[in-house]
Amino acid sequence: MSVFSTEEIAAIRGRFPILSRIVNGKPLAYLDSAASSQVPEQVIEAVARFQRTTRANVHRGVHRLSQEATEVHEGLRDRIQRLLGASRREEIVFVRGTTEAINLVAWTFGRQKLNAGDVVLAGELEHHANLVPWQIVAAERGARVEKIPALDDGTLDFDAYEKLLDSLPVRIVAIQQVSNALGTIHPVERIVAAAKRRGVATLVDGAQSVPHMRVDVQALGCDFLAFSGHKMYGPTGLGFLYGRYELLESMPPWQGGGDMIDKVSFSGTTFHEPPWRFEAGTPHYEAPSGMNAALDFLEEIGIERIAAREHELLEYAQTRLREIEGLRILGSAPHKAGVVSFVLEGVHHYDAGMFLDQMGIAVRTGHHCAQPAMERYGVTGTIRASFAVFNTEDEIDRLVAGVVRLQKVLR
Ligand SMILES: Cc1ncc(COP(=O)(O)O)c(C=O)c1O
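# pyridoxal-5'-phosphate complex -> structure
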């Protein structure tokens, strides 16, 4: 029995206008939700409605429109708090996306915490967004970033991790919950607990987990968690940082400007309390209305059912792809999210991507902003199909048929 009936899937698909597009003469098969998911009509409509009726800057005006916009904006903060199980709303900082959230933590907390010789531990499969900011800040502070090695199946080497924690002056662990390159679901709760036992701070990159599974920051016990709205059926340009309030309170501002201040004079400036201290300038204020609609969509369908459906699609895709000779799937971890990454003998991933596009199939090709992960498995890139609740077995069949055909043509 499938998680959703065929009719339910058809109804869900009907809510995404883009899925009726014809691309290169073929119906679109969108298999790239790990990069950006598509948005249901209600998200498009909510943003359009906001633009038509409410558009005004937030936190500034006493006029009606500004008050309404502020209510939507701050109301979303409450919802994200509930979504993540954070203990207070002030623990949620609005940013542009996961990348900005991690940079914020690196440039404030990281700079405060790191001294010469110190170490940041990051997973070998990390997205560049959870590696490069640490490298830049570590270099400035005379510290360094070391990797938690990955095993052949795409899981992290937990024993090696504990040894690193015990043998190096580790101050921060930066770890993804789900790998965008291979789909591995990492045991973040254990990873965080091991760090905490040694008094080491933790940042969880939730870009690929929050859209696909229930994530509770208090259960995880992490100090920070970052994710993006555009990967969870929401608008672009809006992401979220969760930070434990005591830590946010001890962190200096990052970007200076309007709205993040308490009092400004030429003799000196004092800053707002968190989270507003970290929210300089006009935010992407039309996005919260769309994000609210995206959360409505997620709640209505249910994140657990979405996770189960994506797992079903993953299993189906892996089974079908394994039937293809000359195709190798990277990552066989026991716990995987809806991402399948593979290489084809004798075919460059880039050519494969172009070929599949001609058949209306949108997959991601390349290193997926995870070059160390590619290096670990001895490839320059992969072909990656990633799933959302709107995908179907039929689209996976089209991918399989496309791969078989391209092998005939390109080999
Ligand atoms: C695991 C992971 N971390 C971070 C990011 C960066 O997210 P954004 O581009 O929304 O800042 C991505 C995006 O692909 C990702 O998959």
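# post-check
The two ends are 38 Å apart (CA to CA).
The longest helix spans residues 64-84.
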